[in-house]
Design brief:
two-stranded antiparallel sheet, 17% strand, elongated, binds flavin-adenine dinucleotide
């Protein structure tokens, strides 16, 4: 937890690359634990560490280092892939902002202490200034939600059941202006800049998917050597050997793409992985992982379908990674936009351009 937090704020100052190595190993054993580690290193906390003031960093770092997994609150009932169509507002009032709106599918919502809430920032006259990120602190251990912060419900999901996906409602929630992240590009471009942090989160999410696939492959290899049918180990059947080879190639290709993307953070001006490489790697790894885990489950026969083996859980868990953190379709749109040099409303650059001409409507996550 917090291994990427700089040493001056109490962390290890580890790179996203180092962090990805750790996440892969954890994901082989537990998808959910790996998700927590991603969120505590590559999610909202990395945005705070990159764009926060000294006070914001000094406030958030110890909370994460003590074990908190910050929640990122972007998605709304009417703004999923079209993230910048969010309707949550933060209106300036003296030295505070007043937040109103609903977020859903927030991982750890209401359980985490830190929430990075994205909202349309309005000045005192109600004029829109851009989309900003607010650090909202809430202590679930105290069992008292801050006034105006409500956990409406928890979604029921097919996998990843150990952490809530919550719907949150903000009703005149007061947040001090000191808790608004202010990237250097200014509020108008704040969303696009804050989303750079999402590139690392995507490398993390892709690494989880790849790690789960690697774990499933390890289990399948062991099983093929152990289980006998027709008087010989399953490992001796060519049909299964070829499946194992394809699974290995998929995992290895995913690993290389993800590590390549993670490494770019060390040389990029933003300090975050390259957007195109992160999108491409997460796209490839998440789709490959679903197939690899599915094939591993197949090799276990009925045991794979039963809940005595971890495969059925791994399958349910890994299915999520083509949806959360940028769907496979949105990632394809971003990769294609980059390849063809097209700025569409579905790309972050398109969002920035739209913001420049005063029409802040576009998508991205
Ligand atoms: C387990 C889980 C955890 C999540 N955690 C968080 C979280 O912590 N914080 C948060 O803010 N959000 C979170 N999300 C929400 C997630 O980011 C959204 O689900 C995602 O952005 C897609 O939005 P949507 O579900 O509304 O789908 P929609 O945007 O309604 O899309 C529906 C389908 O249409 C496709 N589609 C949409 N637009 C296009 C297009 N232009 N071209 C082609 N296809 C398109 C999509 O790819 C998808 O297949 C989580 C989701 C899940 C499942």
């Amino acid at each position: 937890m917090g291994m990427t937090i700089p040493k001056e704020y109490g962390g290890l100052g580890a790179s996203f690359y180092d962090c990805a190595l750790v996440i892969e190993e954890i994901a082989k054993a537990c998808t959910l634990t790996a998700r927590i580690v991603v969120e505590a290193n590559m999610g909202g906390i990395s945005a705070v560490m990159a764009y926060g003031t000294h006070e914001q960093k000094a406030f958030c770092a110890p909370i994460v280092l003590a074990g908190d997994k910050p929640a990122i609150c972007i998605t709304e009932p009417d703004a999923g892939s079209a993230a910048t169509e969010m309707q949550t507002t933060a209106r300036k009032s003296g030295d505070r902002y007043i937040l109103n709106g609903t977020k859903h599918w927030i991982t750890g919502g209401g359980v985490s202490k830190l929430h990075l809430v994205f909202a349309r920032v309005l000045d005192e006259n109600g004029n829109e200034e851009g989309i900003g990120g607010f650090i909202v602190h809430h202590d679930p251990d105290a069992r008292i939600e801050p006034k105006g912060f409500e956990v409406v419900r928890r979604e029921r999901t097919m996998g990843l059941c150990g952490m809530p996906e919550a719907e949150l409602k903000f009703s005149d929630l007061e947040v001090g202006e000191a808790f608004l992240l202010r990237p250097s590009a200014g509020l108008k471009r704040s969303f696009a800049q804050l989303m750079e942090a999402y590139n690392s989160q995507r490398v993390g999410a892709g690494t989880i998917a790849m790690g789960v696939a690697a774990g499933a492959l390890d289990r399948a290899k062991d099983y093929l050597k152990m289980r006998e049918q027709f008087g010989r180990p399953l490992a001796e059947f060519q049909g299964l050997q070829w499946m194992v080879a394809d699974m290995d190639a998929s995992v290895h290709a995913s690993r290389l793409m993800l590590r390549e993307a993670a490494k770019t953070a060390q040389v990029s001006a933003t300090g975050f992985p390259d957007m195109m490489m992160a999108a491409r790697a997460k796209l490839f790894a998440s789709e490959a992982a679903i197939k690899v885990v599915n094939d591993a489950l197949q090799m276990f026969g009925a045991r794979g379908y039963g809940d005595q083996e971890p495969l059925e859980r791994m399958y349910r868990d890994v299915r999520m990674f083509t949806i959360g953190g940028g769907t496979a379709q949105i990632l394809r749109t971003q990769v294609a936009g980059n390849l063809l040099d097209i700025k569409t409303p579905q790309t972050r650059e398109g969002y920035v351009d739209a913001a420049d001409i005063g029409s802040v409507r576009a998508v991205g996550e």
